[in-house]
Amino acid sequence: MSIDGYFLPVQDLQCGICTESFVNNDPRMLPCQHTFCLNCLQGLKDKGKHFSRNSFLCPVCRKSHQWPNSGTKGFPKNLLATSLKATYQSKTTAVSSASERNLENCQRHFQQAINPLTVCKSCRQKNLCLKCLTEHATCSLEPYDKFSQEYDENRKRIQEKVKLYRDNINDELKSLLSQLKTAFNDVTKVVEENKNRLEGEIMKKLGSCKAEADSILSKQENEFSDLKSAEEKIDILLSTKLTFYPSLSLSIGSLRRERDNEQNRKVTTGAGYWSSYSNRFGRNIPFDTRVILNGSPVGSQYSESCTSSETDKMKS
User: Which parts of the sequence belong to the RING-type domain (predicted)?
Assistant: First the structure.
């Protein structure tokens, strides 16, 4: 606590029993100079602790004291604490009165500030009193009105700059967002165009591959059909005996064996082979012969043919 430049430790104003400030609690001082609240001393007496009969021990220094005949109120009041209380109340009343009258007071010395109000620009303290002027003799002082006006102007200028910067930042953000949106749309458009182009090329290629595959498949089917037809004809030929004129009936197996034998004998022509058959029938038989397959002629047509009698002879 500070009163007109004098300072007291807070613990010196505390009650040794409740540890609260005794300034506003009717402080009573014991002969040992320790001060306690009146109510705390009364409680100590009522509880009967620290005393025997009419004596008790100081809760702080443990010295023995006698209870006054008039009780706890018989202890004298602490005049310093009473004076501090009165001074504090007067200062508080003065400040309250000044506030009610719209007067400015020094917050340090609780005295009325000088008029016009003065501000220390170095310490940033306002409402200086006469004592403050002495303490701030080396500082830069200025009337409060002028200082307040400059302060308001600076604050307004700073607020305008902040607003300008905020507006510029908002404009930049809007511009960046617009550019970003435009770039995104452009990229999306290019991607979509490339997608459509690639899809078209892929579909075209697939169509070409499908047509080529269909053509190959159709060709293979036709070839397979021809092979199947040829296979059926071969099966018919293999299951049918061949009849040669005259009265010559040979199986396919016999013909194959004859062919192999002829090849082994390296016979280059078949005229001699057929001449032996001519001698048997008494005349020349053409080399080419009509083959009868299942009763129908299937061989080549020849210019030279046998007579009816020869034919009858062959049949017999």
Answer: 15-62
Percent pLDDT > 90 in the chain is 17
Asked if residue 22 lies in contact with residue 8, where contact means CB atoms within 8 angstroms, the answer is no
| Residue with more model confidence, 100 or 170 | 170
3-state secondary structure 144-180: HHHHHHHHHHHHHHHHHHHHHHHHHHHHHHHHHHHHH
What φ, ψ does residue 179 adopt, rounded to 5°? -65, -40
| Angstrom distance (rounded) from CA 104 to CA 174 | 50
Q: Quick one: 123 exposed, middle or buried, by C-beta within 10 A (0-12, 13-18, 19+)?
A: middle
- Mind listing the domains of the chain with CATH numbers? 2-103 (3.30.40.10), 242-315 (no CATH)
* Residue among 111, 136, 138 at smallest CA distance from 125: 136
Compute the distance between CA of residue 161 and CA of residue 157 in angstroms, rounded to an integer: 6
| pLDDT score for 187 | 94
Q: Which residues contact 41 (CB under 8 A, 6 or more apart)?
A: 17, 28, 72, 75
| DSSP category for residue 34 | -
Residue matched to tokens 């021809």: 226
The first and second tokens of residue 222, run together, are 């036709």
Distance, C-alpha 127 to centroid of its chain: 57
Q: Give 119 or 149, the one with higher predicted confidence.
A: 149
- Taking the whole predicted model, whether its pTM rises above 0.85 is answered as no
Q: Among 174, 118, 176, which Cα is nearest to 147's?
A: 118
How do residues 60-74 score in pLDDT, each as one tens digit?
898 888 888 888 888
DSSP state of 193: H
CA-only gyration radius of the chain, Å: 71
Residue 99's SS3 state is helix
